[in-house]
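Lecture notes, unit on protein representations.

Consider one protein chain, 211 amino acids long.
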Amino acid sequence: MLPFILLLGRPGSGKSAIYKLLQTKFKDNGIADKFERIDDFPILKELIEQDTEEKRHIKKDGGFAVTDWTLIDEVLQVIDKRAFEKVEDGKIVFIEFARADYKSAFKNFSDNFLKNSIILYVFVEFDKCLQRNEERFKKAKDKLDDHIVPPDLMKTYYKDDDIEKIYLEKGEEALKSELPIRIFVLNNNVEGLDLLSRNLDEFVEYYKNQI
């Protein structure tokens, strides 16, 4: 059993809904009956709170902005350690994060972590992610949620990423040869839970063939 599933994709790509659907599908297929989700944001907040002299971040719009980007790498190093503490029989740990440069991000994980992981990359066009995220941002404007990505950050840091670039230019098979982890690309551009559910069935079959 591969205990770690890296659930990757831009903010607004639908990762939260996918996580919920996959729990049911894994149970129905007898693969796992326990699940846990590690989101990189709470860990980032922990590290920010330790930065009391604000050497690595600044306060912004009721939240914060990272100024020392090695902090982002440190978050993944913490995840590597904590993920193994959560491993047990019949359990899958979902690890959720989004980056512009995934190839560099993966260098923060140990070889043991990488060989026990599989990527589920959620592909959604940028404009659609931007729209979904801005809708969430507007809903939270009266009580700012600093977990919602500000629109300006969406248009800069999250506009492009290297997995999407390879996928669009060379195809999914090229990803499998260029990345150090098994990968499945889930196209979530089309709206509708029925289609998403069918696409996730394909991922579950892929996962089963890897174990």
